[in-house]
Design a protein that fits this description.
Largest sheet: 7 strands, antiparallel
Oligomer: single chain
Structural class: alpha+beta
Radius of gyration: 24 Å
Mean pLDDT: 95
Number of helices: 21
Bound molecules: 2-acetamido-2-deoxy-beta-D-glucopyranose
Shape: globular
CATH architecture of the largest domain: 3-Layer(aba) Sandwich
Number of strands: 22
Strand order of the largest sheet: 17-14-16-15-19-20-18
């Protein structure tokens, strides 16, 4: 008992968090250890929650004879559904990529199954009060706290073993505020349209609700992206080049803090928390129970599929790719945004007569919004095509396909992210500004070449920065979004998959990603990366994900969460703890 009393004394004397958290070796309480609350204590929590405490079995357990939920027909179903985002989004503990459950219960009979990789208990929250009760319990009993909505997180921040998890999925009410919105506790009225959405809302539900009013919000490219993790990370969007990042479009939030306070935060009330919650990263400063997001008239969308391709064996492949990438700022200034892939060698996704099976070059899924000029696309691409035909006559094929959509939702319905869940991968990314894209061609070419040296032989080059992001005017003057976004045009990223139970393969994936993007890091020394699609093991992660905002974010974190009730990685202020080999979270 000496240690806790000593801690208490220090905090009473106001010596503060710096000292009392430096006692090494102290861990968060863990199932099966003496400090873990008794069954009766958990039952009492359940009662306080009106029976909303869950102890979910691992979702893969239906495939394992000997597990209480074993059921062969359900196993067949789960094995199939495991590949879908929706399955994991609807489950209280499942996340999209297997690595983040530590492979403890895959839906495969020939593997082992235990609940060890998952949260121990879950609060099925449907109001802010439930969230508060969960946070208060975790703080009081020193239990690792987890926050999960859909589990659509490439960095695995929505699962923690042996934790109490707050499942925000059912906080999903969506209301339209037409014409104006009055900030709570401030009296200020913001004019314009907005939606107030529950913290567990998913992109598709918001898009669909907004479309009923011919509106849209700045949102993500996959249906199952959850709003909380998305806006706390900044939130890039195909609409961002016009309207700014998702975080730039937040007017107000209701959050529950690590201290258990249910607060409305906006530019006039708790402005520093409002600032931090928009870009400072998820699961760090509090849990969003609702957010009010500015909306826009849904645009008429011209969908533009572009292919600029050549034979992978051509010697000029990287000259071609570098040239196209260098044209992205100019294309974006003409209104284009979109999701592109550049490749040195991949199978063509669309079979067309006259196109070889394997190609190198550029393939893009872009849009223009609200353009009247039917020639806008050909005008923009004509000079690019001319240059290409001049430099590499008859060696490059250049196709564009246009489709018109009456609304953003109509476009999204045909173009949302249809990738598979399940399996494991890590990502790496870098934000690219105008200088790196249009400056030293040789340096960029080299960086792109190294950047495609992994197993994908490709790289994604999303046109999601540009004017709207660079000139964004977030409420209150600023937010915690990585300043690197404010000069970026392109979010470049790559991934490396790895199989289960193979440490050396996982290690190899990390090394490839670390190495692949080093030239892009070197070319953007003051730049950074997008926290929600990133390499979780960036060496200089504080600078990479938050740049000059880090110091202020850390100060806010220490003030609102002096005892680290919230902890995740890579997340602001997590430096005092580490996950041990056995999965426990302990002070360093
Ligand atoms: C919580 O209580 C509900 C209703 O009484 C019960 O169905 C549920 O199993 C309990 N949860 C746990 C984890 O025991
Ligand atoms: C297995 O699951 C199916 C589908 O949910 C159900 O109909 C069946 O009764 C279950 N079998 C057993 C043995 O519980
Ligand atoms: C799995 O079961 C769910 C619920 O019964 C059903 O909606 C779904 O279509 C099934 N999926 C497959 C692949 O059989
Ligand atoms: C288990 O079986 C599946 C399907 O046959 C196979 O792909 C996988 O490699 C096996 N896993 C292990 C750990 O043996
Ligand atoms: C969670 O709560 C919602 C109501 O808010 C309920 O519909 C749902 O069935 C609950 N989920 C589980 C797994 O108990
Ligand atoms: C949305 O736009 C359509 C087509 O212009 C129009 O018919 C409809 O009334 C509009 N709906 C609302 C809610 O404004
Ligand atoms: C690009 O130029 C070539 C050669 O002039 C032409 O065949 C092709 O149709 C052009 N592509 C586009 C999309 O304009
Ligand atoms: C692990 O993966 C590597 C390839 O990355 C492979 O060579 C090796 O055989 C795998 N090891 C096991 C035990 O499967
Ligand atoms: C992951 O699982 C392995 C067993 O497969 C275990 O040894 C290890 O401690 C676990 N790691 C974490 C961080 O939970």
């Amino acid at each position: 008992m000496l240690v806790p009393r000593f801690q208490l004394l220090l905090s009473l004397t106001g010596i503060g968090s710096g000292l009392h958290t430096s006692i090494p070796g102290t861990c968060k309480s863990y199932p099966g250890t003496p400090s873990w609350p008794s069954a009766a204590t958990w039952a009492a929590l359940n009662q306080t929650l009106d029976g909303r405490l869950l102890q979910p079995p691992p979702p893969g357990a239906v495939c394992h004879p000997g597990q209480p939920t074993y059921n062969a027909s359900q196993c067949a179903n789960v094995t199939e559904e495991w590949k879908t985002y929706d399955f994991h989004a609807a489950n209280p503990i499942s996340v999209m990529w297997d690595k983040f459950d530590n492979f403890t219960c895959l839906p495969e009979q020939n593997t082992t199954c235990s609940p060890a990789g998952y949260p121990a208990y879950v609060v099925n929250a449907s109001c802010a009060e439930h969230v508060k009760i969960g946070i208060d319990f975790a703080r009081k009993y020193n239990i690792r706290l987890n926050v999960k909505n859909t589990g659509h997180d490439y960095l695995g921040r929505s699962n923690s073993p042996g934790s109490l998890s707050i499942w925000t999925h059912h906080l999903n009410k969506i209301t339209y505020n037409e014409g104006q919105f009055k900030l709570q506790g401030s009296g200020k009225v913001i004019s314009g349209n907005s939606f107030t959405v529950g913290g567990g809302s998913q992109m598709y539900d918001i898009y669909a609700a907004a479309d009923k009013h011919n509106q849209t919000i700045v949102g993500g490219g996959a249906k199952s992206v959850g709003v909380g993790g998305y806006i706390t990370g900044g939130g890039h969007s195909i609409l961002a080049p016009r309207h700014g990042l998702a975080a730039d479009n937040v007017w107000e939030m209701e959050i529950v803090t690590p201290g258990g306070d249910i607060l409305t935060v906006n530019e006039d009330r708790h402005p520093d928390l409002f600032w931090a919650m928009r870009g400072g990263g998820g699961s760090t400063f509090g849990i969003i129970t609702s957010a009010t997001l500015k909306s826009y008239p849904s645009p008429k969308v011209t969908g533009v599929t572009i292919m600029i391709i050549t034979d992978p064996k051509e010697s000029f492949v990287f000259d071609l790719i570098t040239y196209i990438v260098s044209q992205m700022p100019s294309l974006m200034k003409q209104g284009f945004s979109g999701y592109n892939i550049i490749t040195k060698d991949m199978e063509i996704p669309i079979q067309e007569p006259g196109i070889p099976d394997r190609v190198a070059g550029f393939m893009g899924k872009c849009i223009l919004q609200d353009v009247d000029d039917p020639e806008a696309v050909s005008k923009a691409f004509h000079p690019i095509n001319e240059t290409i035909q001049k430099r590499w006559p008859n060696r490059v094929q250049f196709y564009t396909t246009l489709e018109q959509y009456d609304s953003f939702l109509a476009w999204f319905d045909k173009n949302y992210d249809t990738n598979q869940a399940g399996g494991s991968l890590y990502l790496v990314s870098r934000l690219l500004d105008g200088e790196v894209l249009t400056g030293n061609t040789e340096a960029l070419k080299n960086a792109l070449q190294v950047g495609m040296s992994g197993s994908s032989r490709s790289m994604e080059a999303f046109m999601v920065g540009g004017k709207g992001v660079q000139e964004a005017t977030p409420r209150g003057g600023s937010n915690a979004v990585n300043p690197a976004w404010r000069t970026a045009y392109v979010h470049a990223l790559n991934g490396e998959p790895f199989g289960p139970f193979n440490k050396s393969e996982e290690q190899r994936a990390k090394e490839i990603l670390e190495r692949e993007f080093q030239p892009l890091r070197d070319l953007t020394p003051r730049g950074g990366a997008y926290i929600n699609e990133a390499f979780p093991f960036e060496k200089d992660w504080q600078q990479t994900f938050w740049g000059s905002n880090y110091a202020k974010l850390l100060k806010i974190k220490r003030r609102v969460d002096p005892t680290d009730v919230f902890w995740c990685s890579p997340c602001v202020g997590n430096e005092r703890w580490q996950v041990r080999q056995d999965g426990r979270l302990c002070k360093i």
